[in-house]
Design goal:
The complex is a heterodimer. In chain A, about 75% of the residues lie in helices and about 0% in strands. Chain A is globular. The N and C termini of chain A lie far apart (about 80 Å). By secondary structure, chain A is mainly alpha-helical. In chain A, helix 2 packs across helix 11 and helix 3 runs parallel beside helix 5. Chain B folds into four domains: about 180 residues, Rossmann fold (3-Layer(aba) Sandwich), CATH 3.40.50.300; about 70 residues, no CATH class; about 190 residues, Rossmann fold; about 70 residues, no CATH class. Chain B has a six-stranded mixed beta sheet, sandwiched between helices. Chain B has a six-stranded mixed beta sheet with strand order 16-19-20-13-21-22, with helices on both faces. In chain B, a hairpin with a 2-residue loop joins strand 17 and strand 18. In chain B, helix 15 packs parallel to helix 16. The chains are: A mainly alpha, B alpha/beta.
């Protein structure tokens, strides 16, 4: 039956491709999820910022800073403390200290962004650009200094062994397996996406955050402290950027290279927009953006048979590497106009404006 | 005029009851302006106390002080006889003071329920909201006032009148003892106003809520208030009970001198034809012809009014005359010279002044200082420019002269136009467009949204220009205004100028009928096409 569909000229090619995707999806799912995790975490950072009305294009820089700090601090700690795991998933003291340091570093950078955007009321785009440029410079320089002494790697977190009964569930078992067979940072993303999604629409914090991001003046008149809420959300957003950075150097890999975030912070912003400023939507968007990496892998190790396989194999691998960026551009071009940002996104809030308005009607 | 004297409410609020709220000797200074100067005000339980004053008289400042949004320089606030200090809106709400702002403080993308409970959320547990309880409470509150509002409706999908109700519910939800309404009817239709008034009366009679009602509309205040306090230039100038006052008395208090609610326009002495329009056709943005074969003339020294229900082609007619919209056919001449399709700058050079209907979009650059706004027409040539360079001194002294002549109340000529009140903004536009040698003056709804003092001022200026030999073309959707000021009245109906009447020989009924039907008595009145833009 399916063979018949495959035999249709040209269109059959497409059917074959879809069939191939369905076939290899369980195999490439871990790759896709692994690539999507730092992007989704970055988007969570953006979500915390933009829902409360602060634009953050400095996610890239925050991630890069955190990636460096996680690797460096873990490496330093490993030289002092014993390197043996003290918990599941290869949690050694060094890695845990590195993780905490990475989160702290990203929160510190977020604090700078919050201060510039909220208190100083600087242009938020410029604040983000400064963070990005500064992060590239400082991590590149320090990495140069440190790598001369060739510090030992502290290793990396290991994936959790998902319970076998979940993986054995027919039809969807592979999905549970792929989602759950991850290290602590990957797992924390899953928890965070679900928790933040629920909190945004069901909790007091979520309601107030949405109000402040849409109409801060209205929030102020019902007694909500707009400035404090923005500070809190931007700094907490730093936690996610910290996790995203640490993921790159102590969970997904175990080393640091200059500019290794490689635009993931910007793709995270795209995922945030495509996901309509919701955690679940951004996570989905991140998976979509990185699907091509999984496909590239599948094609390299097990191309489909026949003409389709020859074609896919003949595409240069650089094309697959460029695909996430291409997909991002294409999807955003089609979606950006229709996805509506929080109304007060990027607009500094000042109480003086209220006073000024009062004066106007005085 | 109003039924205030027959209302039972006047006897309800007995003067013996102690005031719920007292504001004593409130003074608030802003740089260059004393917004509130020793204002005292007391509000009794269950009364509707109107605060009446022109735009910029200091009403909103006083209420911002009461709501904790501004800090007074002097004076004290007493609640139930105890002096209190109000530290921000949160504190005000906690003390039972709620405010409905002139510009609604609602978040459009949130639901009715979310807007109402924002800031005072019922919690099912420390983290999650108790939506069930909130919805039940909102339904209970709204049904008490005889209207059903869907708690899950998005606020942006509601009409302005319903948004106003949500604002009131928001205040009631917080169990307000004192409800401040800042110009609540400014954006409402007469029907919606009546409905809101019913709600307010139920509030005071059944819940005993006190209401401070801020307005500059005399008839409304007479209709709804138990007592009226009038503020002028930051001072209390009088207090009245509706039964013992009338519109003339209140207007005089408000403006500080006797106001002619109808300006004596005197005889006109029309001279030669200044503006002649022949066979004019204009299309709207979608390419439909909305002005058909319109022809009329305006002589020097007369005021011609164009009356019509909104959306009958007046907007496009004005835009075509002013060079803001291409002319699809016909000719326009000014003193015999062809000006069909001339640019706005060319028209200004030929002595055409124009006060647009929307002063925010077309009349002013709100973020520019007064100086730049006043030199907007002539900034590019002497004396305001020397070659490519601005002559700041000349621009400034010119602005200072105009601000003085046209009584624009402002701390200085260098503040941004957006800091002025609506009436003063309009005076700014009038100052710029009326000054200098004019041939023709086009006024498109020049008094929309203004208080009586500003309206009178603008009417007087227009008549002075007429008497100085300027041709005045005045467009308005308000029948009374057209009748009041015009020497001749043209009525537009569905893009045609159906008739031109002598203003002294006609009356409201005749013009009103023409506006509604186009003069064809055989046809039933047809709804004017509303989709113009």
């Amino acid at each position: 039956m399916i063979e018949l569909l495959y035999d249709i000229p040209i269109l059959g090619f497409l059917f074959q491709f879809v069939g191939y995707l369905i076939e290899v999806l369980p195999i490439i799912a871990p790759t896709i999820i692994g690539a999507a995790t730092p992007i989704a975490l970055g988007a969570m950072c953006g979500f915390m910022n933009e829902r409360s009305g602060v634009v953050n294009i400095g996610i890239e820089g925050m991630m890069l800073t955190a990636a460096f700090v996680a690797w460096w601090v873990a490496s330093l700690t490993a030289q002092v403390l014993p390197g043996d795991p003290i918990g599941p998933m290869g949690m050694s003291p060094a890695l845990l200290v590195g993780l905490v340091a990475a989160i702290a570093a990203a929160m510190l950078v977020s604090l700078v962004h919050a201060w510039l955007s909220i208190t100083v009321r600087a242009d938020q785009i410029i604040s983000g650009v400064i963070i990005n440029i500064f992060a590239v410079g400082i991590t590149g320089y320090l990495n140069l200094l440190i790598s001369r002494s060739a510090p030992p790697s502290a290793g990396q977190f290991r994936a959790w062994d998902a319970p076998a009964f979940l993986a054995d569930i027919p039809v969807v078992g592979w999905l549970f397996d792929a989602l759950l067979s991850q290290g602590p940072i990957g797992l924390s993303l899953l928890v965070a996406v679900i928790v933040m999604q629920v909190l945004l629409f069901r909790s007091r914090w979520g309601l107030r955050t949405r109000a402040v991001g849409e109409h801060p003046e209205a929030a102020e008149t019902v007694g909500i402290d707009v400035i404090a809420l923005r500070y809190r959300n931007v700094i907490l957003g730093g936690v996610f950027a910290g996790l995203a950075g640490a993921y790159l150097t102590i969970e997904f890999g175990n080393s640091f290279q200059g500019e290794m975030t490689n635009g993931r912070g910007f793709i995270a912003l795209a995922a945030l927009i495509f996901g309509r400023w919701t955690p679940l939507g951004s996570f989905g968007a991140a998976l979509l953006f990185t699907a091509s990496e999984g496909i590239q892998r599948a094609v390299r190790f097990g191309p489909p048979e026949g003409a389709l396989g020859d074609f896919l194999s003949s595409v240069p691998s650089q094309f697959y590497s460029a695909l996430p960026y291409l997909i991002t551009i294409i999807i955003l071009a089609g979606v950006v106009g229709r996805s509506i940002a929080p109304a007060a996104d990027g607009r500094p809030y000042s109480r003086e404006k209220r006073e000024k308005r009062a004066k106007a009607s005085a | 005029m109003t039924d205030a004297s027959s209302s039972p409410r006047t006897s309800d609020a007995t003067p013996e009851r102690p005031p719920l709220l007292e504001m004593r000797g409130i003074t608030k200074r802003y740089p260059g302006v004393v917004a509130n100067d020793d204002i005292s005000l007391d509000v009794r339980p269950g009364e509707i106390h109107a605060l009446l004053g022109e735009n910029g008289a200091g009403k909103s400042t006083l209420m911002n002080i009461l709501y904790g949004l501004a800090v007074p320089d002097e004076g004290e606030i007493l609640l139930n006889g105890t002096p209190i200090e109000i530290d921000g809106p949160n504190d005000a709400i906690r003390r039972g003071i709620s405010m409905v702002h002139q510009h609604f403080m609602l978040v459009p993308v949130l639901t009715v329920a979310e807007n109402i409970l924002l800031g005072d959320e019922p919690m099912a547990n420390p983290i999650f909201l108790d939506r069930g309880a909130a919805h039940a409470r909102i339904r209970e509150l709204s049904s008490f006032f005889g209207f059903e509002v869907d708690p899950d409706a998005k606020v942006e999908s509601l009409s302005v009148g319903w948004q106003q109700r949500v604002e009131i519910l928001k205040a009631l939800y917080r169990q307000a003892d004192i409800l401040v309404l800042d110009e609540p009817t400014a954006v409402l239709t007469p029907q919606e106003t009546r409905e809101i008034f019913t709600v307010l009366r139920r509030l005071t009679s059944e819940l005993g809520t006190s209401i401070i009602f801020i307005s500059h509309k005399l008839y409304e205040v007479l209709d709804i208030a138990d007592r009226i306090t009038v503020i002028r230039r930051g001072r209390v100038v009088g207090q009245r009970v509706p039964a013992e006052t009338d519109e003339d008395d209140l207007a005089e208090l408000m403006v500080g001198r006797e106001v002619q609610l109808t300006v004596d326009r005197g005889e006109s002495h029309p001279a030669d034809v200044a503006l002649r329009v022949e066979g004019l056709h204009v299309r709207d943005d979608r390419g439909r012809e909305v002005v058909h074969d319109v022809g009329f003339e305006v002589r020097a020294g007369e005021i011609v009014g164009i009356a019509g229900v909104a959306g009958n082609g007046q907007d496009e007619l004005v835009e075509a005359l002013l060079g803001l919209r291409p002319v699809a056919g016909g000719t326009v001449t000014l003193n015999g010279a062809h000006i069909t399709g001339a640019s706005p700058r060319e028209l200004h050079r030929r002595g055409i002044g124009f006060v647009p209907a929307d002063r925010h979009r077309y009349g002013l650059v709100l973020s520019f200082p007064l100086t730049d706004n006043l030199s907007l027409n002539d900034y590019y040539h002497a004396p305001f420019a020397r070659g490519l360079v601005r002559n700041e001194a000349e621009i400034r002294s010119y602005a200072e002269r105009l601000v003085g002549e046209y009584d624009v109340r402002t701390p200085s000529v260098t503040v941004d136009a957006q800091t002025l009140s609506g009436g003063n903004q309009q005076k700014l536009v009038v100052a710029r467009e009326f000054d200098g040698d004019l041939t023709l003056l086009v006024l498109d709804q020049p008094t929309r949204g203004l208080d009586v003092g500003s309206i009178e001022f603008i009417h007087r200026q227009a008549i002075a220009k007429r008497d100085a030999g300027v041709a005045v073309l005045r467009v308005s959707a308000e029948l009374d205004e057209v009748l009041e000021l015009s020497d001749r009245i043209g009525v537009m109906y569905r893009g045609r100028l159906v008739q031109v009447l002598d203003a002294r020989a006609t009356d409201r009924e005749e013009v009103g009928l023409l506006m509604a039907t186009g003069g064809r008595d055989t046809e039933p009145p047809i709804e004017a096409p509303t989709a113009v833009s």
